[in-house]
Structures
1.
Amino acid sequence: MRRPLLTLLAALLLTGCSQASDDPSSAGPSGPSGSSSSPEPPRVEPLRYVALGDSYTAAPLVPRVDGASGPCVRSTANYPALVADALDAGGTPVRLVDRSCVEADVGDLFAPQAVTGGEVPAQAAPLDRRTDLVTVGIGGNDVLGPLLGSCVADGTCADLPRSDAAATLDALRTDLVDALRRVAEDAPRAEVLLVGYPQTAPPSGTCDALAPVPAADAAYARGLADGLDATLRAAAGDAGVGFVDAYAASAGHDICAAEPWVAGTETVPGEALALHPFARGQEGVADLVLEATT
C-alpha cells in the first residue's frame, strides 16, 4: 500500500506555480513604483513518520545519543533521523516520531516494554489516521536472543539447541504478521515498511572481529541470519506491507569485511555497541528506505 507522497507534493507545487503565472490577477496590486507582491507559496503539511524497532533501528552509540530517549538509547543519526533529514532537504517537511528502543521484541510494539533502566510505553501508541509513513525494524531479539544468547561473544554456540531454530522462526512469522496487520489498521493511510537486518557473519570462515567465535559457530550464526531474513520477507508478504531488503544490500559489508555495517564482538567507543550498527550501516539502510518510499 505504497503512497507516492513526494510525487503528489510535487504535483501540488507545480499546479500552484502554473496558476500564479497564467492568471494575470495573481501578480497582485502594483504600488506607485510598479512593484508587486509575490503570492505566498502553498503550505505543505509535514509528512508524519513513525519509526518502530529495536536496537538496530535505535543504533546505540552511533554519534550522538539522544539524551531525551532515556533507556532506549536512540542515536540522533539513526536511519529514521537520516530519512527525515533527507526528505526535509528535498522539500518534504517531516514530523518524525521515533519510538525505537534497545532490547525490543515484537511484543513491545503494542505493550509497555521493560528495558534496562526503566519502562517505556508501547511503541505503536502514536499511530493514527494522520500517519503517512511507518517503518518497523524488529524481530531479531525474538530469534537471535533465544538461539544465540551470548554465545557469539564467548564462542559456545555449539552448546545451543539448534533444533529449536525452525520453530522459533515460524513463531516469529506468525507474531510479526499479526503485529504488522495491526500497525496497518492503526495507521490506515500510511505506507508501512518492514526493514530487514544487515549481514553480520561472513559467508564462510571467521575473523579477528568475531573472536573468539570458531568458524563452525560463525556458520551457525550465518544460517540463523539467513533464516531470519527469509522469515521477515515472508511476514511482510503475508501482511501486505513493503519490505526493505537490507540483507542483500549489505553483502560485502559483514563484520569481517573492510567496511562493515555492524561492529564485531567488541564495542567501539563512540561508534557502535558490540554487534550493532555503525554510522555507515545506518546510512546504507536510510538510502534503502528512501528508495522504497519514493
2.
Amino acid sequence: MIPHPPKRVQKELDTVMEFFRKNYPEARLFLVGGAVRDMVMNRPLNDLDIECFGIDEKTFEEAMRRLGAKGVGRSFFVYKYEDIDIALPRTEKKVAAGHRGFEVTLAKDTKEASRRRDFTMNALMLDLESGKIVDHWGGLEDIERRLIRVVDPDTFTDDSLRVLRAMQFAARLGFRIESRSRELMCTISFDDLSGERIFWEFEKMFRAPLLHYGLFEMSRVGIDRKILGFSLKRGDFFKTARHMVRALKFVDTEMRPYVFLYVLSCDLHLNPEKLCDRIHTPNIYKKVLKFQKCIPSKISDRFLGALSLRFALKQWIGIYADDVKKRAADLGVYESRFDPGIRPADLLKEGYAGKRLGEELRCRIRAAVRERFGVQESG
C-alpha cells in the first residue's frame, strides 16, 4: 500500500497490482509524476499514474483489454482504469508546433522515461512492488529545499506551458523556482499556447493557498509582461502580496478563485476585464469582477450599505480590509443584502411611471441608505 490515497483509489490500485502479479509477473509497475511528489510531501493523493515496464506494446494492450481499461483519446499507450492512468513508459521529441507536435517512442529504462518530466519533483518514481523511490534527477533533495528545478534544459522549452506550471506549482506548494531554471524560463515565448491552456494553469493558481508565491514567480519569469501586459514592480509586489495573503484569510470560500485578479486590478489600477481577456477566463470571471468595488481610502458605513444593495458583503472580496467583516456583521449586511423596502409596484400606485419612476426609485433608495447607514461619504 502507498500512504494517503482515498479508499476507492487504494482498492483500484490493489486490483491493478494483483492483476499484473497473477497474469504478467514479468511486468514492473511504477507510480509516477505528481502522486509520488505528493506522497513524499504527505499530501492527499487522488488520481494516480502508473507506468508499466518489462512488457512490450502488444502484451500491454492485451493486458489492458483483459483488465477492462479504456484507451485515452489519441494518447500513446495510455489507458484508464477507473481513476488510475496506466501507460507504457515513453520518450517525447518535439517535431512540430503546438502541444501535440511530439514524436513519441517507447522508453527503455526508468531514467529515460523520467527525463520527459518537467521538474525534478515530478520525475520521482515509486516501485510499487518494493516500495522504493527511484530518483534520477535529485527530486527528493529539491522537495526538501522547496525548489522547482527543470529536469532537462535541452527539452524543457519544447512546451512553453511548463513555465505557467512552475508558476501555479509555486502557489500550490510554496516552492520557489531554482535560479538557472528561472533564467531558462525567461527566454521562453508563450505565442504557441492556446487561450484554453493558458487559463487552465492560471485557474490552478487562483485556487491555490499561497497566491503570493505564484505572484512572485509570475513576475520573475516574465509572465506578467508577456501575458498580462504589465511589469510588476518590487514595491507593488510587497503591497499586493500582503493583500492576497490577508484576502485568502477573510474572503468567503466561494469568492476565493477571484481574489488574485481582484487584488491585482485594484492595487495596480488595472482593468479587470482586460486581465480576464489576456488569460482567456470564462465569462463568470468578468461577471463577478464587474460588480466588485475596490477598497476606498476611507470606508464609511454608507459605502458598505450602498454596496450591500448589490450583494451580501460576504461576497465582497474587499472584506479583508481592516475591521470590515466585523462592521458588516454589526450592520447586518454580512450574511444578507440590505433591503431598503422600496418597491416599484408601490411607486406605480402613487402615479409614477416611465423616467420619473426610475428617478424616484433611485432617490428613495439613496434616502433609505442614508437613513440606515448615515450620511458620511467614503473617501
